Amino acid sequence: MTGAPFEVRSYGGEAKPRVGFFTDTSVCIGCKACEVACKEWNHVPEDGLVHTGRSLDNSGGLGADTWRHVAFVEQRKPVSIGDGLPDSLVQHTARRELADDLGELRWLMSSDVCKHCTHAACLEVCPTGALFRTEFGTVVVQEDVCNGCGYCVPACPFGVLDRREEDGRVWKCTLCYDRLGAAQEPACAQACPTDSIQFGELDELRERAHERVRELQAAGEFGAQLYLDDPGDGIGGAGAFFLLLDDPEVYGLPPDPVDATRDLGTTWRATLAAAGALLAGVAACALGGRR
Amino acid sequence: MSSYYGQPVLAQPVWTPEVPAYFFVGGLAGATAPLTLAASLRGNDALAGRAAAIVLAGSVASPALLISDLGRPGRFLNMLRMFKVTSPMSVGSWLLTAFGTTAAVSAGRELLGLFPRGGRAAQSAGALLGPLLSTYTAALIAQTAVPAWHEARRELPFVFAAGSLSSAGAIAQLVTPYAHAAPARRMAVAGAVAELLAIRAMERRLGALGEPLHSGRVGITTRAAKLLTGAGGALVAAAPRAGGRRRSVLGKSGAAALLGAALLERWTILRAGIASAADPKYVVAPQRERVGR
Q1: Looking at the domain assignment, is residue A6 inside a domain?
Q2: pLDDT at residue A27 above 70?
Q3: How confident is the model over B160-173, as pLDDT tens digits?
Q4: At what angle do helices B45-69 and B88-112 cross, to 10 degrees?
Q5: Residue A140 forms beta bridges with which residues?
Q6: Which of A12, A106, A242, B106 is the Cys-Cys partner for A227 at CB 3.0 to 4.6 Å?
Q7: In 3-state terms, what secondary structure has residue B25?
Q8: What rounded mean pLDDT belongs to chain A?
Q9: Is residue B3 situated within a structural domain?
Q10: Calpha distance A260→B277 (Å, rounded)
C-alpha cells in the first residue's frame, strides 16, 4: 500500500485497505446531490439557507454543519480547446455556448470534503484522542470523547473542522464510517449522478485519476491537474484527492498544504530553549545582587 | 493571486479571550515558581511567601480559564485521557496538573509551615516545570496552520518567556514591600527589555506575514503593548533612584504597566493569528511561492 498512514499499523490483522474519494471536478455539474445526501445520512443540522450572492454556492465552505461543499467558480479567461472534444467534458459544453468577445465564460464546479490526510494535523494535535485513524485509514471524530477544545480547528491546513456552536463539539466528514463497516459506499458518492465523486481503494483511485488527467491533457485541457494525490506532499497525500481544472487556490484550496506538526522538533526545541533561558533569567535576577 | 471570492482558506480559531488570559496568567505563575524557590533559599521570606501565593493563585485560575473556554466544559478530564507529545495542549494539560500540585505543596510550606522537606522538593520541581508552563503555550499556537503563528515558531516561545519574566517580576514587586522586592524589580526590567527584543525578532522573521500585527485594531494594541512595556520597564528601573513615597509610586505604576503590556501582547498575538487565518493571501501567497509559478 503506497503512503499508508502509520497509525493503521496498530490495527494489525484488522486493518483494511485504505479507502478514499477521487473527486473528478471535470464532470461535476454542481447539482449538490452530495451536499444533500451527506446531510440526510449523517443527520447534519440545517445551518441556514442563505445565498452568498456571488454564485450558485449557497453553503459557503466546509464547516461543522457542511461536510460536502460544492464550489462554483465563474471564470472569464482564454482557454485553449483541442479538437475532438470528448462528450464526457460536460463543463466544456457550457462554456462554448457562453463564449463572447470578452473571452469564454466557464463554470468550474467542485465538491469539497475532508481530505483524510495521511499526516493529519487535526489528529496529531487532538489532546483527548477524540480524533482517530480508522482501520480504513480515514480520520474520524468520536463525538462521545471530543470536549470542544478547538485545537484541531486552526491545525487543519484546509479549514475543514469547526465547532458546532450550540453543541460545543467539533464535527466533520467521517467518510461515512458507519456505511464502510456495512460494505457500502459513502452517501455522497452514491448520490453523485455523474460519478464526479468516486469512492474506492486509494491505490486504484490514484491509477484511475492519472489515466483521466492524461486523457484531459490530450484533449487540450491544459489546466487539468491532480491535487493531493502525491504521497510526497506536505500532508503525505490525501485519502480524498481531486482532479482540478485550474490552480487549487481558485477553488479556495491551499496550493501546498503542510501538516504543521512536521515542524514539531523545531518548535519543541525553541520552547525548551526559551524555558531554559527563562529559568536562567529568573535565577540571575533572584540569586545575583541584593536579596 | 487567485482566491475563491476572497473567502478564507483556513478556519479561524474559535478560542475566546479566556485563552490569551490563560497564556498571561499561566506564564506569570510559571515564571514566579523559580522566584519562590530562590527567595526561600536566600531567606527572603517576605518575597517567598508572596511569590508562593501568586503561584498558587495562578495555578487555580489557569484551569478555570481553560475549562470555561471548552465547548464541553464537563468533559475537561478528557484532557488527561492520554499523553501526546505531538499535541502541545496535551503536554500542557499534564504540565499544568503537575505544576498545580507543586504549587499547593510549596504554598503550604511558605505560608503555613507545613511539609518542611517535601515542600522544598515540590518547590524545586515547580521551579523546573514553571518555565515550561510559561512557554509551551507558544508551541501550542505555533503547531497550527495559522501563518502568523506557525512561521514565528522559533521566536514565539521567547516572546512568551520574556513576557512571563516581566509580568512575574511586576506582580511580585506590586505586592511585596520595597525593601524585599529587589529580585522582582530586576526580573521586571530584564523581562521588559527581553520582551521588546523578542518581539522585534519575531516581526523580522514574519516579514509580510506579520502585517496583521500592525493593521487595524490589532495594530493599535501592538503599539500600546510595546509602549507600556518600555514605559513600565523604565519606571521600575528608575524607582530605586527616587526617594521616599515617589519610589513606591514609580515602582508600582511601572509594575501595573508591565502587567497590562504582557496581557495585551498575548491578546494581540491571538487576534493577529485570527486575522492571518481569515485572509487567504497570507495562506496562499507563500505556498504558491513554494511550489513555483
Answers
A1: no
A2: yes
A3: 999 999 999 999 99
A4: 140
A5: A132
A6: A242
A7: helix
A8: 91
A9: no
A10: 14
Note whether residue B10 is domain-resident. Answer: no
Whether residues A165 and A283 share a domain: the answer is no
> A64: helix, coil or strand?
coil
The Cα of B183 is separated from the nearest Cα of chain A by a number of Å equal to 5
Most B CBs within 10 Å, among A158, A226, A271, to test the B interface: A271
Looking at the 3D structure of chain A, how many domains does it have? 2
- Which residue range forms the structural domain that includes residue A253? 14-258
Give the pLDDT score at B192. Answer: 98
Look up residue B95 and give its three cell numbers.
504540565
A1 lies in some domain: no
Pairing mode, if any, of strands A240-244 and A225-227?
antiparallel
Alpha helix (H) ranges present in A9-82? 33-42
Cross-chain residue pair B128–A250, CB shorter than 8 Å = no
Contacts of A76 in chain B (CB under 8 A): none
Q: How far is CA A259 from CA A133, A235, B151, in A?
A: 16, 5, 13
**Partners of A197 in the beta sheet?**
A23
Residues forming a β-bridge with A201 = A19
Q: Which domain holds residue B280?
A: 18-291
**For B81, nearest residue in chain A (alpha carbons):** A128
Task: Say yes or no: A45 and A139 in one domain.
Answer: yes
What is d(CA A20, CA A186) in angstroms, rounded to the nearest whole number? 10
Alpha helices (H) along chain A: 33-42, 90-97, 121-125, 152-155, 177-181, 187-191, 202-218, 264-287
pTM above 0.90, yes or no: yes
Inter-chain touch B70–A147, beta carbons under 8 Å: yes
Q: Facing residues of B122 across strands?
A: none
